[in-house]
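Journal club side-thread
Mid-discussion, someone asked how the predicted structure for our own chain would compare to the paper's figures. Pasting it here so we can look after the session.
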Amino acid sequence: MRHAKKAATIWIQSDFCARVKGASDDHPVTYEDPVTKKKTTHGTADGRQACLQHCLTYTATQAIVAGAGARALRIRVHPAAAAAALAISFGTHYAADRRVPGKGLLEKIATKTGKSNFYRLADFGMNGAFHLDSAWHHGWETVAVLVATTKATTR
């Protein structure tokens, strides 16, 4: 699931979803199509839709990679456990990636834990929000894998 997260977030996610998924009516995002150069402005509904679309492709990528990995390792995963694991991954991913400025879950957690300066860091080749996001996902993916392997057997 670890590699699937990287692949889904960095390679599979569309540029549109990456840029628009945090849009809100209070903090609209202007997107410029890289091909047509047409600019469009997006609010809450589009932000939610972009985040949902990303989370669906993210979860599908994880399902494919985890299924292939289990098959290669000759592990039989219980379908209900796999579904629960993917639901955990989907839900926690959406909660973290819907980064509406001032209202996003990760920003709120960073503020409450004294990490708000790190969250906003975007200098020296570093992006604090991205690293906190990755750490969040790593933790939840560990929980998801533990759930997925509940009642797992060998083939």
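Post-session note: Strands lie at 29-32, 39-42, 75-76, 153-154.
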